[in-house]
Design goal:
Pathway: Lipid metabolism; butanoate metabolism
Strand content: 5-15%
Pfam family, one: 3HCDH
Radius of gyration: 27 Å
Family: Belongs to the 3-hydroxyacyl-CoA dehydrogenase family.
Number of helices: 23
Structural class: alpha/beta
Bound molecules: nicotinamide-adenine-dinucleotide
InterPro entries: 3-OHacyl-CoA_DH_NAD-bd, 3HC_DH_C, 6-PGluconate_DH-like_C_sf, 6PGD_dom2, NAD(P)-bd_dom_sf
Keywords: Oxidoreductase
Shape: elongated
Helix content: 40-55%
Largest sheet: 8 strands, mixed
Length: about 600
């Protein structure tokens, strides 16, 4: 018969513990909330009160329900209070020794039937369990941050966890309105194993001044629809906790260099820059514990953001190409008031592109995004041509032709002959080195990358890529144009994958490896990332949409450029591509799309 769980103990009321207390108390369960000292207890209590007050202010919680919630919690110092708990979950710092000592003590204090649970993110639940005399009643219950909001719970069973304990905890999760995935004890479980390599990589980019913190975060939010950027997420998790998780994952997870904590993380922890909880991490907050950002010395000034300094005026924009990206980019520039010269390889192609632009603008009218007059004016600004010579008067040329270096190089050489001096020449490549295009011309200082996302009219992100030869003026011009389009330009150096693809695809590849290792199913992995981290799509859903062939090609580029062993394409991805399972477009990828 299932165990009655009516009183739960929570040990440690920091970032996670305070949230976990709230989750239980909200669902009618009595909570014994325990800390090490009066000061820590007070901090935990005020975090909790702050969180419930915010929920009331936002209309998400009734004041009476808040009072009832708070009345279910008793705050205590010391473990003695946990004698009668049916289940105890700990959320103390991520250190194995500390947790083992704590579990030995809990084993002595708690009643024999009590389940002892850890909220560890990366430590071995098995190693923690054997510090007790009841390892079969020890389990991992891994909540996500912020616990009251994120719906996922990873339930981690060891080889000795009793099946009825697993069942009781699964039933408890359902009572809490959470979705659980039950998995074996492996470093980082599902979500963190996929998340932390990505977070650490983002820190490395910031540390190398590859892009600014704002740009790295904006890139992932706008390019992938993530609820927050990686550096803001590091601040939310807490840099000390993130350090411990990375360190453990490195040691337990096969010494993958991608988990070796970036040196900057350790330095920040030593300097007390722990993220939101200390008021300062990658960003600066109003006060410790506050989510409100305040400007600091790294915050871009208004003039920097506008990037108008030294920018050349642009009136006419040439767009070369006739595919999806070219079509979208023509529409974007025309809508923003630029004269556009579209160049394709023939009148027939031009007619098709023109039709596609018209269709898309018509859709905009139907949806009330623009008026008929605006549509007609935008179309009136585009001229259609099949000869590059018509770009002689353009101030900016954007190429969006096929992703083949030789084709792009030949085009850049031709543009170099035709275009006026000082014109900015841009490539939309998503994977080729921009410098290779630049060096096909006699004016590499004027060449930049403008990496639009698909569909260009809808996606507000543009990666603005400068090579080691790009002039400050060309970069300023490119940034100003992107701003004038109403898009967010993220400036980065010319490295494989720029910001978004370099951070996104290794994570997708890791998900494929996890599936390949039979650690979990595609459905559970997708769910873990959506419900645990707020991603709009799980990795396998996204891979099927992007196309497995495209994903494999990008992953290969990243691997070739960086030679990072962890970036080697997952064999399963290669096999699926060889088998023709390319994703939605082929009717089958990780999932079968024919019957849907
Ligand atoms: N931060 C996250 O995003 C996140 C997400 C999921 C899981 N976790 C895991 O949750 C656990 C806690 O992490 P956190 O980020 O909340 O840490 P934290 O540093 O914010 O909080 C830890 C709390 O534990 C208290 N504490 C320390 N020793 C104690 C003891 N012996 N008895 C009682 N309380 C004690 C501290 O006073 C502090 O309030 C870790 O195992 C971590 O891996 C963290």
């Amino acid at each position: 018969m299932a165990r009655e769980i009516s009183t739960v103990g929570v040990v440690g009321l920091g970032t996670m513990g305070a949230g976990i207390v709230e989750v239980f108390a909200r669902n009618g369960i009595d909570v014994l909330a325990v800390e090490v000292s009066d000061a820590a207890l007070e901090r935990g209590r005020s975090t909790l009160v702050g969180s419930t007050d915010r929920a009331v202010a936002k209309g998400k919680l009734d004041p009476a329900d808040r009072d009832a919630l708070l009345s279910r919690i008793s705050f205590e110092v010391g473990l003695g209070a946990l004698r009668d708990a049916d289940l105890v979950i700990e959320a103390v710092p991520e250190q194995l020794d500390l947790k083992r000592r704590l579990f030995a003590e809990l084993d002595r204090v708690c009643k024999p039937t009590a389940i002892l649970a850890t909220n560890t993110s990366s430590l071995s639940v098995t190693e923690i369990s054997v510090a007790t005399q009841r390892p079969n009643q020890v389990i991992g219950i891994h909540f996500f941050n912020p616990a009251p909001i994120m719906r996922l719970v990873e339930v981690v069973r060891t080889v000795v966890t009793a099946p009825e304990v697993v069942a009781d905890v699964e039933a408890l999760c359902a009572r809490l309105g959470k979705v659980d995935v039950t998995i074996n004890d492996r470093a980082g479980f599902i979500a963190n194993a996929l998340l932390f390599g990505y977070l650490n990589h983002a820190v490395t980019m910031y540390e190398a001044r590859y892009a600014s913190r704002e740009d790295i975060d904006a890139a992932m939010k706008l390019g992938c629809g993530l609820p927050m950027g990686p550096l803001a997420l590091m601040d939310l998790i807490g840099l000390d906790t993130a350090y411990e998780i990375l360190d453990t994952m490195y040691r337990r997870g096969g010494r993958d260099r991608r988990h070796a904590p970036a040196p900057l993380v350790k330095q920040m922890v030593t300097a007390g820059l722990l993220g939101r909880k200390s008021g300062r991490g990658f960003y600066t907050y109003e006060k410790p514990g506050s989510p409100v950002l305040v400007p600091d010395e790294e915050t871009p000034t208004a003039t920097e953001s506008a990037a108008a300094d030294g920018a050349r005026g642009i009136a006419t924009v040439g767009v070369v190409g006739s595919g999806t990206m070219a079509t979208g980019i023509i529409e974007v520039f025309a809508k923003a008031g630029y004269e556009v010269v579209s160049v394709t390889r023939g009148a027939e192609k031009s007619a098709r592109v023109c039709e596609a632009v018209k269709r898309s603008l018509d859709k905009g009218v139907v949806r009330g995004r623009l008026t008929e007059e605006e549509r007609d004016a935008a179309l009136g600004r585009v001229s259609w041509s099949a000869t590059l010579e018509h770009l002689a008067d353009a101030d900016l040329v954007v190429e969006a032709v096929v992703e083949e270096l030789s084709v792009k190089q030949a085009l850049f050489a031709a543009l170099d002959e035709i275009c006026k001096p000082g014109v900015v020449l841009a490539t939309t490549t998503s994977s080729l080195p921009v410098i290779q295009c630049a060096m096909a011309t006699q004016r590499p200082a004027d060449v930049v990358g403008l990496h639009f996302f698909n569909p260009a009219p809808a996606m507000s992100l543009v990666e603005v890529v400068h090579t080691i030869r790009t002039s400050a003026r060309a970069l300023a011009t490119a940034r100003a144009v992107v701003a004038a389009l109403g898009k967010t330009g993220v400036v980065c150096a010319d490295r494989a994958g720029f910001v978004v693809n370099a951070l996104l695809f290794p994570y997708l590849n890791d998900a494929v490896r996890m599936l390949e290792a039979s650690y979990s199913t595609a459905d559970d992995i997708d769910n873990a990332m959506k419900l645990g981290c707020g991603y709009p799509m799980g990795p396998f859903e996204l891979l099927d949409v992007v196309g497995l062939d495209v994903s494999l090609a990008i992953q290969r580029e990243l691997y070739l450029e960086l030679r990072e062993p962890g970036f080697a394409p997952a064999p399963l991805l290669e096999h699926l591509v060889t088998a023709g399972y390319l994703g939605r477009k082929a009717g089958r990828g990780f999932r079968d799309h024919t019957s849907r």
